[in-house]
TrEMBL record:
Residues 116-207 form the Phage integrase SAM-like domain. Gene3D superfamilies: 1.10.150.130. Signal peptide: none annotated. Transmembrane segments: none annotated. It comes from the Bacteria. Keywords: DNA-binding. InterPro entries: Arm-DNA-bind_5, DNA_brk_join_enz, Integrase_recombinase_N, SAM-like_dom. It comes from Dyadobacter sandarakinus. Residues 11-86 form the Arm DNA-binding domain. The lineage of its organism: Bacteria, Pseudomonadati, Bacteroidota, Cytophagia, Cytophagales. This is Phage integrase SAM-like domain-containing protein.
Amino acid sequence: MIAATPKLALILDKRFAKKEGLYPVKLRITYKRESKYYPTGQDMTEEDFVRQRDCELMRSKKYIGTKEYAQLSAISKSLNKHVDEANSVIAKMKVFSFDLFEGRIEQPSVELDNVFIAMENKIALLKSEERIGTALTYENALTSLRKFYPKRKLSLASITVRFLREYEKWMVANGSSLTTVGFYLRNLRAVVNIMIDNDKQKLDEYPFGPRRYVIPTKKNSKRALSNDDLRNHWLSAR
């Protein structure tokens, strides 16, 4: 048995709002005042999250046996399975560490190859390290990417030279300078590198670099810095 037991909880991560009032449900593990968040692959409204959490109380309201109860109960059992699996892994550890835990826990396959989720995890890590300024630049990049690519999942294979060039054109067409494009794409490249280094996802062709896609820099943009550029530059330098 490990000396100190981590605390586990299912939470609705309101930092990352999605369409129609949906938020990702995550498993939060707290150990020695440090918290990390792990995706469950489930998105819910705040109301439904509370109702599934308390669905067993619906028995007293004679909801048992209804279609509504069955749906909420199934979601609740699915989410709590993540807690049970995490507890099972932790119980076998003599000394807990997040790195060791992450090497043993099975993550939802639907989320492993999702750049959006990888960026969310990066933001959560930066915030846990109190690197708020840098976290904000990643949040801005994520918001921009979601607007450009309004789908639930952005796979690693989707990050091609063509994708990056089209994203750059879209940003410029919507009023961003190449300097801002550079800020956002350097953040995206950092997340892509993390996903590749994980050895769980591979790219047929790495899209960044000479003869592929070169991230715009201050040198190849003659446009004056906008207030947005100056703000991003100040934040990244913190």
